[in-house]
Design goal:
Blueprint (H helix, E strand, L loop, with lengths): L1 E6 L8 H11 L5 E6 L2 E4 L3 H6 L7 E7 L3 H13 L7
Antiparallel strand pairs: 1-4, 2-3, 2-4
Helix pairs in contact: 1-3
Length: 89
């Protein structure tokens, strides 16, 4: 199991388009993937749950991944966040 943090660094935060891109990544993996603030974790494969987080720029999120492909999932999620969801600033 991986339990780590990740920072939201893109200008608009985890809005609808960014959440959609995150779901494109998370749904490729069989691992359970949860993301949230502190102890409030939500399913990172559910767009409504992601939007309810209200994670704006500068938010530190907790990322919990458990499963056979957890390392690959972590890598791809971290790459997506680091690339600011591939959005123009």
């Amino acid at each position: 199991m991986i339990d780590t943090t990740i920072d939201v660094i893109n200008k608009l935060g985890l809005h609808a388009r960014a959440s959609g891109k995150l779901i494109e990544v998370t749904t490729k993996f069989s691992s359970s993937i949860q993301i949230g603030k502190g102890d409030k974790l939500v399913d990172a494969k559910n767009i409504m749950s992601l939007l309810m987080l209200g994670a704006g720029k500068g938010t530190t999120l907790r990322l919990v991944i458990d499963g056979a492909d957890e390392e690959k999932a972590r890598e791809e999620i971290q790459t997506l966040f680091a690339a600011k969801f591939y959005e123009a600033e």
